[in-house]
Amino acid sequence: MNFNQTKRRASRILLGLAALASFAAHADVLDDVKANGVVKCGVTLAAPGFSAENNAGKREGFDVDLCKAIAAASLGDETKIQLVPMDLKTAFAGLPTGAVDVLTHRFTWTQSRDVGGLKWAKVMFFDGQGFIVTKKSKAEKVADLNNATICTAQGSTSELIVADYFRAHKLKYKIVTFASQEQAWDAFVARRCDAAINDRSGLAARLAKLPNAADFKVLAETVSNEPIGPIVAQGQPRWEAVVRFTLNALVAAEELGVSQASVDADRSSQSPDVQRLLGVTGDFGTKLGLANDWAYKAIKAVGNYGDIWDRSIGPKTPLRLDRGRNALVANGGLMMSIPVR
Ligand SMILES: N[C@@H](CCC(=O)N[C@@H](CS)C(=O)NCC(=O)O)C(=O)O
To answer: What is the dihedral of CA 138, 144, 147, 152, to 10 degrees?
Structure first.
């Protein structure tokens, strides 16, 4: 072998080793989470009720609670979380690099995002987009927005929704696109646009922190379906299952009447469903690579799905969101658990 051949072979081996090392770094996110002793969650920047700092400077909300539940299930301790606030531009890229283990950020499950390398574990929120306008504008329905200027954020699902909806209804519009939702919202509030569009929950969250919220109104029409849920990187079936079944356990708990307040007593329940969920019988935790009390730990940490809803975004919070289509199927909504069997 001459010098050049040796050099080429050596560099091929080095490249192979580098590829192996980077693969090994993310070989299995569940193993990484256990080794690091922390779950890194990408969360929404500043949406009250979902992920925002409270007066004590601590981030709280629905997205944060889901992160805590995942940490409680996988590490037995809901405090072992690292919250990474991310915007639309940076969030998706954080999964394959391992900057975050899961996005509990409020992103919509779409076909192109899914086949593009992101894996949604389960729907945590059935949302839909709506338009917000000033009360002064007198617009009552989307049809009144003919010739309107609409603020949107780049990379959000809204751009296509606006284009499709306005074309279908033969309305003229001008779209103004900003680098982030924050900027789009600020521009709308500063009256640079006649209307803004976002997930209805996102509009409620932003209105909740606006001092002059009474000057605005969200139009009644919901113009899209936005199934929102936690996302993991593709190729991580064990971790994806942990995230899916942790969220699922919170929904199952609500269906079975197991709440944060009752979960300790419920460990003595005679219901086979409750016994399986709480790890009293069966090995549903072990099969996920976790302890058998994984779901008990998650429910103890944050409560069931309804507990989280009520505490973060429900009728008694500034967002005042009722369950609507997120009610349990038993109550006429769309939310249901995958059977724990
Ligand atoms: N669900 C839509 C919108 C997502 C979205 O806009 N998220 C909001 C939270 S409600 C946000 O503030 N993102 C931060 C940002 O983009 O700056 C999507 O998946 O495209």
So the answer is: 80
